[in-house]
Amino acid sequence: MHNPLEEKQRYNLIQGDCLSVLKEMESNSVNCIITSPPYWGMRVYDNEEDEHEIGNEKTFEQYVEKLIAVFNEAKRVLVKDGSFWLNLGDKYVDKGLLGMPWRVALALMDNGWILRNDVIWHQLKGTQSCKDRLRDSYEHFFHFVKSKKYFYDADSILIKPTKQPVVTTKDTVSSTGVSGKKYRKLIRESKELTEEEKVNAERALDEVLSEIREGQVNDFRMTIRGAQRAWHSDNARISGRAKELADKGFYIMRIHAKGHLPNDVWNVVTEDTWRTDSHCAVYPEALLRVPILATCPEGGIVLDPFIGTGTTVSAALKLGRRGVGIDLSPQYIRTSKERLIQTMLLA
Ligand SMILES: C[S@@+](CC[C@H](N)C(=O)[O-])C[C@H]1O[C@@H](n2cnc3c(N)ncnc32)[C@H](O)[C@@H]1O
Fold it and tell me: Rounded to 5 degrees, what are φ and ψ at 13?
């Protein structure tokens, strides 16, 4: 067993079959795994003759089995609070969509991985291959973890509000112009709230307005029992908001000044630059920004067992992390090396 990266090394590229290479790696030695394996029956890499090449299996069941073997070994190498991001595309066989990403995801869940997000990578372009169905324009990017407690730096990926609240000596107005006057009127005129609930609701309204003045909150919405249409289930057993409304007579949704987390549909155009000299399905570095910032600590190690043209390690280096890449193809290892020399020159 050996460390995938010496203390002083920024990156390491290893040529070989990833399952065999992973088996030699020390347990708990990388912080994050991000990868896009070969899709089943889709691409031809230059390892065609190699029995270890993944993607050429006769059946998709064999393909899923091979991937699971690799990712189980990768799990051992990943630290306890680490994350694993998996990008996979789908395939049609005899007109039927296989649902391959989900077949692999479900098998991973059966093997103990916890699925935290199914990010839809909306590629914006999409090709027209036939006339009796819609164009394909997205792929899945699954986020798995090893344990319920895992490293997640949410602050590093917050989307900052573009508009700021207006705060004057006379009035305070949230970034979308909410001053609280209408809410106060609804509370005072409510026939549903008890006197005590009205006092509590006005106190909560004053509190959130003062949070806006102090810059902690950027915007808010208030729902008052019986006064507006509620956008959630009104079953208090299903919805926390319905329960709060039933118990207290109101609830307040705050939009924090620090910003909000991105949602799970990412619009990122596919990569062209590194595609020209290879058959490899390259993903763009922009797709890896959130996974690296949120789930790999600064200076930590990102591993890609199917490194292809070096994208994962290049993105990791640019964001102040270190990287390890494995690929079966000597040609792709050479391409990755050339790319990483350029990345380091720019860093
Ligand atoms: C979809 S490409 C990865 C592309 C990469 N994300 C990028 O941006 O360049 C998949 C890669 O897996 C490699 N590969 C296939 N079987 C492998 C195996 N058993 N071990 C390691 N690499 C393998 C192929 O050579 C290919 O470079």
Answer: -115, 130
> What does the domain layout of the chain look like in residue ranges?
11-157+262-346, 166-256
Question: How far apart, in whole angstroms, are the C-alpha atoms of residue 320 and residue 300?
Answer: 8
Which residues, judged by CB distance below 6 Å to any ligand atom, belong to the binding site of ligand 1?
Answer: 17-18, 36-38, 45, 47, 52-54, 280-283, 306, 308-309, 311, 326-329, 332
Contact 325, 334 (CB under 8 A): no
Write the pLDDT tens digit of every residue in 143-165.
999 999 999 999 999 998 888 88
Tokens of 89: 């595309």
- Length of the chain in terms of residues written: 347
End-to-end alpha carbon distance in the chain: 31
Q: Kindly report the pTM of this predicted structure.
A: 0.86
Which residue, 246, 301, 275, is CA-closest to 33? 301
From CA 63, how far away is CA 54, in angstroms rounded? 7
Give the model confidence (pLDDT) of 223-278 as tens digits.
Answer: 999 887 665 555 656 667 778 888 899 999 998 888 889 999 999 998 766 555 56
User: How far apart, in whole angstroms, are the C-alpha atoms of residue 173 and residue 165?
Assistant: 6
Q: Which two tokens stand for residue 181?
A: 């006057």
Annotate 173-194 with DSSP letters as a single string.
Answer: E-TTS--SHHHHHHHHH-SSS-
Q: Which of 254, 253, 266 is nearest to 224 (CA)?
A: 253
Residue to mutate (ligand 1; options 70, 285, 307, 324; most atoms within 8 A of CB):
307
Q: Domain 11-157+262-346: which topology?
A: Rossmann fold (3.40.50)
Quote the Cα angle for 321-313-56, to 5°: 145
